[in-house]
Amino acid sequence: MSAIQVKNLTKTFGDFVAVDNISFEVANGEFFGLLGPNGAGKTTIIRMIVGLLTPNDGSILIQGLDIIKDVISAKMKLSTVPETGNVYTDLSARENIQLAGKFYGLSKKEIAEKSDELLNELGLFDRRDDPVINFSKGMRQRVSIACAVINEPDILILDEPTEGLDVQSRRLLINKMKQMNENGTTVILTTHNIEEANQLCERVCIINKGKIAAIDRPETLTTTFDKTQSIEISFNRSVTQDFFEPVSVYRIENYGDKWRLYTSSPDRTIKHLSKIAENQDLEIVSLRTLGPSLEEAFVSLTEVEK
Ligand SMILES: Nc1ncnc2c1ncn2[C@@H]1O[C@H](COP(=O)(O)OP(=O)(O)OP(=O)(O)O)[C@@H](O)[C@H]1O
């Protein structure tokens, strides 16, 4: 039985179709990512999966339980960290986590042990008794994830959990998601951070305009949908775009002192560039070839659908 089974799901707001007849499954224990541009429909899909929005059509099973018909039992299988966070700002970090423990029916002993463990693990122990209203966005998000995992849920669903966080908070959150997944929790994540999805997710589903543009392992998406190769080069003196005129490339981009040249033959392009540089008495300071990337695959998939 799958952790999540979404079948022919549709959601409209007035005449606007936000989610358009989509179907996918997430296996138990999988780390699954939902990627897509702004307004693609990711949050709407998540809100339907966690039972906060009712679909116009289609079904959602959470470990075989219908989120509409068996809402309570289905909801007990999953914990969620919504885009906006869901902590009580007038309570302290510890009180928030303990309240979540009570909600899930844990014993007093379990709640005391687990909340201290989570406060420590997420770098909040020293601030455990401060009201959350005084916390930064990253700290609130850490409280939010602690509340979501206190009952060691079968399924953890996070909507853009790392958006706008500093490196430390991001790392703590990522480590917690990884650890949960290693211990058997199914993790479903929406993100704009393609590199993050690439590193964490076993499969990603790219959503565009309410439809599934592609769904596969990140490596497969990368090699299937991005054939581009490029060279990144810099010289000891600055050059203008005219410098690259004799070289056969199909796109040129400039980042600070570096130039990115998209080419079907990196080897030929590098040889040609070396010759031109030598003729002009220029030294190559850095040079690297770049293969296909998930980011390019994402861009081409979400552009094609426009
Ligand atoms: N309650 C609502 N009423 C009307 N339209 C809505 C509502 N909720 C979402 N939408 C619309 O549905 C579309 C999908 O929104 P959604 O929030 O699911 O996108 P998203 O992929 O999560 O975007 P983002 O990455 O920006 O968070 C958007 O065009 C949005 O304006």
TrEMBL record:
Q: Which parts of the chain span the membrane according to its record?
A: none
Which Gene3D superfamilies is this protein grouped with? P-loop containing nucleotide triphosphate hydrolases (3.40.50.300)
Write the record's keywords in alphabetical order, separated by commas.
ATP-binding, Nucleotide-binding, Transport
Per the record, the domain of life is Archaea
Boundaries of every ABC transporter domain copy: 4-234
Enumerate the GO terms in the molecular function aspect: ATP binding; ATP hydrolysis activity
Keyword presence, Nucleotide-binding: yes
**Pfam families linked to this entry:** ABC_tran
Similarity section: Belongs to the ABC transporter superfamily.
What is this protein's record name?
A: ABC transporter related protein
Native organism is Methanohalobium evestigatum (strain ATCC BAA-1072 / DSM 3721 / NBRC 107634 / OCM 161 / Z-7303)
